[in-house]
Amino acid sequence: MSDFRAIDFFCGGGGMTCGLRQAGINVIAGVDFDKEAKETYEINNPGSTFILSDIRRLRTNYFEKKLGINRNDDRLIFIGCSPCQFYSIINTDREKSEKSKNLLRNFARFIEYYNPGYVIVENVPGLKTNDKSILPKFLKFLKDKKYTICEKVVDFSYYGIPQSRKRFSLIASRVDENIKLPEPDTEQSLLKNFIGKQNGFSKIPAGHKDNSEFNHTTAGLKPICIERLTVTPHDGGDRFSWKDNKRLQLKCFIKKDNSFKDTYGRMFWDKPASTVTTKFFSISNGRFAHPNENRAISLREGATLQTFPKHYVFKTASIAATAKLIGNAVPPEYARRVGLTIINNSSNGTI
C-alpha cells in the first residue's frame, strides 16, 4: 500500500474506489447520496468509509473534522466523477439533468479548501464538447491554483475495458509538473476475452435468477422477443433480420432503418461491447443481446464488461438497481491504471 490517500466524491457502488485500491491507494472515504449504493460500496471496500450525503449540502470542513484530513496534503487525491446527465447524449429527465450541470462547481469547493496534491475527474465527452459546459471555468480554477493538468477524451477499449466507451478523463497535480494520463494499449480489448463459457459463464435462459453472489441473473423476455432473437443471427446480428416480418417487426421501427440501429442487436465476440449503460439488462435499450444466447447479457456479465472483479458483490433490491450501480460506475481497470500512473510518477522521483 502506498502512502497516497484519496476521497472518492460521487462514488456510487465503488468502481473508482475499487480500482484505486487495486493500485495500492488508500481510499479513506466515498461520498454519495444514493442510499442503495451504501451496502455495495462498504461490503466490497472494507476500510473505506461511505458517507451518505449530497455534496451540495456537505460542510466543506467535514473531512477535516470527521476524518482528520489535513489541508495542503501533497499525497491527498480528490476524485470527482459526478453524475453527467446534462452532458450525456442519452435522453434523460430534464430536472435531473439540470441538477447535474454544476456538480463540478460543488466539487471545486472542496478542492479550494483542502488544496489536495492531485485531482481526478472522469465524465462523459460532452463535459468537454458541450458549449454550456462548466469545464472551462473548472480548468481555469485549477490553473489559478497552480495545478498542472492533463486531460483528453479517451476510448476505454484501449485501456483493458471491452467496451466502446469514450470518456473525458483528467488528472491534475500541483506537485507533479509531469503528470499524465495512462498510456493506451496498442490493441482493443474484445468481448470474447471476458464473457462466454470459456470465461466461466454458464449458458442460461432469459429470466434466469442466480441467487448466489455471482449474480449471473438476466431479465425476462416476452415470448415474441425470444422469437425475434431466435431469428437474429449470432455474433452481431441485428433487428434488420426480421424487419420485413409483419408479426415480429415493431411499429416504431417501420421505415426507420437508420434510427436506433443497435436496438435488439447482438454483441460481437471479436469487438468491444457497446457502452454498458444503466439499461444494459434490456435488449430494447441497445446492443445488449448475448452474442449466441437468446437473452440480454446478465448482471455479472455487465459487471465483468465494466471490469469489476468477479467477487464484487452487488447488494440491491432489484435487477434495475444493480444495473444502475454497474452502468454508472467508472470501470475499475481504468481507475487502477490512473492510480498506478500517479504512484509510478512519484516513485520515479518526479515529485
Write the layout of secondary structure elements.
Layout: E1 5-9, H1 15-23, E2 26-32, H2 38-44, E3 49-52, H3 62-66, E4 76-80, H4 94-100, H5 103-114, E5 118-123, H6 126-129, H7 135-144, E6 148-155, E7 166-173, H8 223-230, H9 299-305, H10 319-328, H11 332-347
Parallel strand pairs: 1-2, 1-4, 2-3, 4-5
Antiparallel strand pairs: 5-7, 6-7
Description:
The structure is a single chain. The protein is an alpha/beta fold. It has a domain at 5-187 and 331-347: 3-Layer(aba) Sandwich (Rossmann fold), CATH 3.40.50. Helices cover 27% and strands 12% of the residues. It is built from eleven helices and seven strands. It has helices spanning 15-23, 38-44, 62-66, 94-100, 103-114, 126-129, 135-144, 223-230, 299-305, 319-328, 332-347; strands spanning 5-9, 26-32, 49-52, 76-80, 118-123, 148-155, 166-173. The protein is elongated. The model is unreliable at 86-90 (pLDDT under 50).
Descriptors for this entry?
351 residues, alpha/beta, elongated
Contiguous runs where pLDDT drops below 50 for at least 5 residues: 86-90
Q: Please report the distance between the alpha carbons of the first and last residues.
A: 18 Å
What string, H for helix and E for strand, traces the elements in order? EHEHEHEHHEHHEEHHHH
What structural class results from the helix and strand content?
Answer: alpha/beta
Quickly give the CATH architecture of the domain at 5-187 and 331-347: 3-Layer(aba) Sandwich
Question: Over the alpha carbons, how many angstroms does the gyration radius reach?
Answer: 21 Å
How many β strands by DSSP?
7
> What profile does the largest beta sheet have?
7 strands, mixed
CATH homologous superfamily caption of the domain at 5-187 and 331-347: Vaccinia Virus protein VP39
CATH class of the domain at 5-187 and 331-347: Alpha Beta
User: Could you say which overall geometry the principal axes of the C-alpha atoms support?
Assistant: elongated
Strand percentage lies at 5-15%
Quote the average pLDDT: 92
> What name does the CATH topology of the domain at 5-187 and 331-347 carry?
Rossmann fold
- Helical coverage, percent range: 25-40%
- In DSSP terms (H or I, runs of 4 or more residues), the helix count works out at 11
Biggest sheet, spatial arrangement of strands: 3-2-1-4-5-7-6
